[in-house]
Amino acid sequence: MALVLTEEQRLLKDTAKDFLESNAPVAALRKLRDEKDPLGYSPELWQQMVEMGWASIILPEAYGGLEFGFQGLGVVLEESGRSLAASPLFASAVVGASAIILGGSEEQKQTLLPAVAGGELTLALALEESNHHRPTHISTTAQVQGDTVVLNGTKRFVLDGHSADKLIVVARSSGAERDSEGLTLILVDRTAAGVNCQRTILMDSRNAADIEFENVSVPASNIIGEISQGWAVLEPVLDRGRVAIAAEMMGVALEAFERTMEYLKEREQFGAVIGSFQALQHRAAHMQSEIELCRSVLLQALSTVDDAPQDLPQLASLAKTKLNELVKLVTNEAVQMHGGIGVTDELDIGFFLKRGRVAMQIFGDAGFHKDRYATLCGY
Amino acid sequence: MEDLEQFRLETREWLEANCPESQRQPMQREDQYWGGRRGKFPSEDAKIWFERMRDKGWTTPEWPTQYGGGGLTPQQGRVLKEEMKRINARTPIYGIGIWMLGPAVLEYGNEEQKQKHIRAISNGEIRWAQGYSEPGAGSDLASLQCKAEDKGDHFLVNGSKIWTTAADKCDWIFCLVRTDPNVKKQEGISFLLIDMDDPGVSTSPIPLISGESEFCQTFFDNVKVPKENLIGELNKGWSVAKALLVHERKLMAEMGSDSPRRVLVPNTAAREYLEFEDGKIADPRLRSDLVDYDMQMQAVALTHFRTFEEKAAGIRSAAALVMKYVGTEAEKTKSELLLAIMGSRGLGWEGDAFTDQEIDTARLWAMSKAMTIAGGSTEIQLNLIAKNVLKLPQS
User: CB-CB: which of B281, B389, B395 is closest to A379?
Assistant: First the structure.
């Protein structure tokens, strides 16, 4: 049954919740922000997550993974959304690892995946070039010269780009600027000559970078999958990423919502707790309904990754759209319902609002996914 | 599990052998059979199909066999539904006796009441109407005034009920009546069954904006009702009613998907009524509205499946409690979207200038406005979610 959690998944969820509550509360992110931490996450925390097996949840057993599937991953990501835990989990153990699993050669899998699972290696996907998610609009070039490939171009909004050990760069080896044909995925060391990485400070106090590639030369054996056939790997990798970030967004929305419901039961005005006012009750009940719909969509999307990948494009676009809309609605209402205190930095609600906005842009906003869904439906 | 597969095979075989070909065709409204003393079969095949299903107990498959049910487990009941759907077998009989009153009598009735009423529902002998709302008691249902006075060996009923669906075609009506006016309003209500052939009962249809008048007002003028027709305890009718409302809301949430009308789905209508450019709907606003609707419907359908799975897994979930709200609002959105897609072709009301389907779509649009009012309005649903799910304090 895909729409209810199994006993194992429930256990994993409880464990994740307990761990994150004590080791990575929102206060931990606040501290990273206030101290302008250069890495943007705690390596000790990440090591603990690795030891708990979180970096290997979706990896095949043959490469040191737990093979627990996206349904297992989903509960951990949701809990990390609740506590806004900063870690390389999404960029490296989900997106990066998926690119290797789906496109990598046997040798790449053997070398890279166990290292990702063990936390010794972190990956990041260098994809975006404009201010909107347009995965085929790639002008970064990959020129093949014998056994080497030379990269030139600029990438933006590279999640964990400043901290990852290796970058998976999406570059164009042939075709016109907006073609899905002609894309190539290549592994590049972040510290390689010609890679110029600039950390960007975003509103969510998490980690992203703009990265320039200037005549970066890498061996052709670093290509993931076939040259110029990168789209066949990239699209399912992005869909997995969309579903995974949707799971995190569910946690963000739920936590903001539940904190707001608590506040509605405490805060008194006009001699009554404000939660007794129908104007607020109806808006809260509407949000609860949207949460229930999103819950079903998310569970279905997660199990689709594991069980029915042919249906993934539609489910991933559905999940990303619904969760984008949910997070926007709930975080805005959370601020509004808290009133004046809602716009203070002292209250954590602002952190959920800001993480929500960044997550909404990751791998496609609602407009992108509605267009894709409509196209998949044939209109 | 193996037994269930065996049951599936046998069911499939039986349906193949017993469901007439004509009863596997898409159903129009006039093809529905509602039973009752004055019930007419729409065709000979419909009669044969009904009688075979009745004799098998499968008009009410999950009710106990001693009262005329099929005695199936919920899992078997689901298999039967799936197998009927597989061959598009029509529902042999409709009725709120099956959907609502039967489950309530099975839960709250005494042995004598079960013997008398349950079998008559399974057999299609009695068609039931529901008497809840009153002209002065809509969303505030508990303020109802229709009274039943204790006259020793019987109750004397006076008052009226409104929105009594198809009451002019029904045989019996189950009513909420005021049996104690001097206590808190919910605590003075009883659940009473009334034979509509009894002297003093009259009914008149109410024309609606959809042009139909399937709802009626039913009047009770010194109607004598035997004491044995009380379901549950005296003045405890509100709990029976609440249990029934759950069935009604579930039904309303599901109704859209089981509509027997010649109604378009927006996705299909778009192909017929809209211009396309390069494979896309040319009007960006309508394209965007359609994708919003399709996504919402997919989410609603998935949530519907989830409530099944949660029920099977024994999980009490909040999802079921939001279905009435999201399901009926989505139906209303669908009707508005269809009208927008069809433009002036969606405005036809009668006559030959429009297809039956177009006229039905326009009329269903008008009818869809009732869906978020009947069975507890959207506003009441939101109140209930706030209270029962979110535990927000009551003012």
Answer: B281
Is B218 in CB contact (< 8 Å) with chain A?
A: no
**Topology of domain A124-229, CATH:** Butyryl-CoA Dehydrogenase, subunit A; domain 2 (2.40.110)
* CATH number of A7-122, picked from 1.10.540.10, 3.40.630.30, 1.10.357.10, 3.40.1440.10: 1.10.540.10
CA–CA dist B62, B2 (Å, integer): 20
**Residues B324-361: tens digit of each pLDDT:** 999 999 999 999 999 999 999 999 999 999 999 999 99
Exposed, middle or buried: residue B84 (CB in 10 Å: 0-12, 13-18, 19+)?
Answer: buried
Contact B363, B346 (CB under 8 A): no
Q: What is the mean pLDDT of residues B295-310?
A: 92
* pLDDT tens-digit map of B98-112: 989 999 999 999 999
Q: Helix count (H) and strand count (E) of chain A?
A: 11, 10
* Angstrom distance (rounded) from CA B21 to CA A46: 64
Tokens of B209: 């904006």
Question: Residue B341: which of B278, B395, B291 has the closest Cα?
Answer: B291
Q: What ipTM was reported for this prediction?
A: 0.95
| CA A120 to each of CA A19, A55, A186, B32: distance values in angstroms, whole numbers, following the listed order | 21, 11, 20, 67
- Work out the end-to-end distance of chain B between its first and last CA atoms, rounded to an integer number of angstroms: 50
Asked if residue A194 has pLDDT above 90, the reply is yes
Q: Contact B194/B231 with Cβ under 8 angstroms?
A: no
- Domain B2-94 in this protein, CATH class: mainly alpha
* Chain B touched by A10 (CB under 8 Å): no
Size of interface A-B (CB pairs under 8 A): 127
CA A273 to chain centre: 37
